[in-house]
Specification:
- The chain is of the alpha/beta class.
- The protein has two domains: 4-119 and 254-302 and 320-418, Rossmann fold (3-Layer(aba) Sandwich); 134-250, no CATH class.
- 37% of the residues lie in helices and 15% in strands.
- The chain is built from 15 helices and eleven strands.
- The chain has helices at 4-12, 75-84, 100-107, 120-125, 134-142, 162-180, 186-197, 220-230, 239-251, 256-268, 302-305, 307-312, 330-347, 368-379, 395-399; strands at 34-40, 43-50, 90-93, 111-115, 270-272, 287-292, 348-358, 360-361, 366-367, 382-389, 412-418.
- The strands form two sheets. Strands 1-2-10-11-7-6-3-4-5 form a nine-stranded mixed β-sheet, with helices on both faces.
- α13 crosses α14 (368-379).
- The longest helix has 19 residues, at 162-180.
């Protein structure tokens, strides 16, 4: 059983290698970690600052490469999964998003539970636990006819060429009919997932004319302005070819062991679309490790950013009755998280762990980790400390004001809790 003292020693002595795939709790390296004691609400904690994971480590599995706004890199959950869980133990993410935590857990031989208020989440995550062969995808696509008489219920001419739109609409009708008749299989779900991810983007690998990255679909009005500014019109894109190419890319680096692990995880996987404050589907004391990152005070508008993906899958974001956006004030956000932590305490087993990733928001004026610590303690957890990961951010992050160590949600800040 890993203790608080074990974790403290490990973090103090941590030194990142280019391939940190084999984490040993008792390895000792020359310390590179800055340890700073801090006091929050009368509780003294250590803040550990280091480069605990990085994109320069062993390349993440290609199955992760699905765009979704405000998601962390697979190296983050891998760090905690390898350190704080064992094979066949249950790893849970209550704010699953594109499924980075649960997919990485599945790849590493853990069982998984995934929850998200956004119904798109399970549609993007579940198919990647049972990936089909490329030949199966191509065969199925060839069986779906293109019907040029199918019309869209909304004007999408600013995004797609007329022929491309006919192919999209024909595919959409086929998938929705299969789902309605309960005939949808793993190949259908895979095709729907890939097509959803390829709707709009900024290269010829997407169905659309040049637009913003695929995790932030703009409005039709905004796209008209983009087209005018760039003097562009939608060119024809072959939907079948793009889906096949993306499928090949997603499958390119999956090993036989990883395929086996994903398939085994799929057999017991639980996918929930609901409120993280109430998950009766999860047994009390079932979860060994939670690795998650909640929405940050409406910094990200999930429903607005995903409107086209929701349309393609005929999903009403209000159907579940669970709001996809988060409270706008710290007080409102804190109230939601208080209820979430009470539920996490229920589902975690004794000696279970929670790695709760938050960030600095509103130009570094609010550190959500300082609000999370008392919430977790009040729910019954022991706070082991705060990890601050130093790293460079991607181009996509910079789009909404993320500049490393400067402003925005600019660092991975993880509050680590343990259930005694």
């Amino acid at each position: 059983m890993v203790s608080k003292a074990d974790i403290d020693l490990y973090l103090r002595n941590f030194s990142l290698s280019e391939d940190s795939s084999n984490i040993s709790m008792f390895e000792t390296n020359k310390s590179r970690t800055e340890v700073s004691p801090i006091e929050l609400n009368g509780v003294v904690l250590n803040k550990y600052t280091n480069e605990f994971w990085t994109h320069r480590q062993r390349q993440a599995c290609s199955i992760h490469e699905i765009s979704y706004r405000a998601c962390f890199k697979p190296q983050l959950p891998r760090f905690f999964i390898q350190l704080l869980s064992e094979e066949d133990s249950v790893v849970y993410d209550p704010f699953s998003g594109r499924g980075t935590t649960v997919l990485e857990a599945g790849l590493l031989g853990r069982r998984i539970i995934s929850n998200d208020a956004n119904p798109l989440s399970s549609m993007l995550v579940r198919p990647r636990f049972t990936p089909p062969q490329l030949s199966e995808v191509q065969k199925r696509l060839a069986e779906i006819p293109t019907d040029s008489s199918v019309y869209s219920d909304i004007d999408l001419s600013m995004f797609f060429h007329k022929q491309t739109l006919s192919e999209i609409l024909s595919l959409r009708r086929y998938l929705l009919e299969r789902r309605k008749r309960n005939k949808e299989d793993d190949v259908d779900r895979w095709i729907a997932m890939v097509a959803t991810n390829r709707l709009t983007g900024h290269s010829t690998g997407f169905f659309s004319v040049y637009t913003l990255p695929p995790n932030q679909a703009v409005s039709p009005e905004r796209q008209i302005k983009i087209n005018k500014a760039r003097n562009q019109i939608p060119q024809y894109r072959n939907v079948r070819d793009i889906i096949s190419t993306k499928t090949k890319s997603l499958l390119r680096s999956i090993s036989k062991e990883q395929q086996f692990n994903l398939s085994r995880a799929a057999n017991s996987a639980l996918f929930i679309c609901g409120d993280a404050r109430s998950t009766p589907q999860i047994k009390s004391g079932e979860v060994q490790l939670v690795v998650t990152s909640p929405p940050f005070l409406d910094v990200v508008q999930y429903a607005k950013d995903n409107w086209l993906r929701l349309w393609f899958n005929s999903i009403d974001p209000n159907e579940s009755g669970v709001p996809i956006t988060m409270a706008r004030s710290v007080k409102g956000w804190t109230e939601v998280m208080e209820a979430v932590f009470i539920e996490l305490h229920r589902v975690c087993k004794s000696s279970g762990w929670v790695a709760f990733e938050v960030g600095e928001i509103k130009n570094r004026t609010i550190n959500l980790d300082e609000h999370v610590v008392p919430i977790g303690i009040s729910a019954g957890f022991e706070c082991v400390g705060i990890l601050v990961n130093s790293q460079e951010f991607s181009k996509t992050s910079n789009i909404w004001g993320v500049k490393n160590m400067k402003s925005g949600t600019n660092t991975n800040r993880i509050v680590l809790f343990r259930k005694n």
